[in-house]
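Weekly modeling sync, notes
Attendees: S.R. (lead), two postdocs, one rotation student

Agenda item 3: backlog of single-chain predictions. S.R. asked that every request posted to the team notebook include the full sequence so nobody has to chase files. The rotation student volunteered to paste the first one in as an example of the format we agreed on. Action items at the bottom.

Example entry:
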Amino acid sequence: MQKQVIEYGGLPVGIVVPQDDTLRFIAVKFHVIDLDNQRFRSVDELRTAIGNHMAQTAAIAA
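Predicted structure, as returned to the notebook:
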């Protein structure tokens, strides 16, 4: 796998870069910066983490 753009809600929020046997997330949008440099086993796992993070952020803001 090569670098891949990750979108959330149709907008690019970061990229994943293969590193060892994982994917390292590099955030490019502030609202997902807490996930920056975290490693994930798959793109699906990362997308789930982004969704959970955004839901938690929305709950805190409400």
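Discussion: group reviewed the output briefly. The mean pLDDT is 93.
Action items: rotation student to repeat for the remaining queue; S.R. to check formatting next week.
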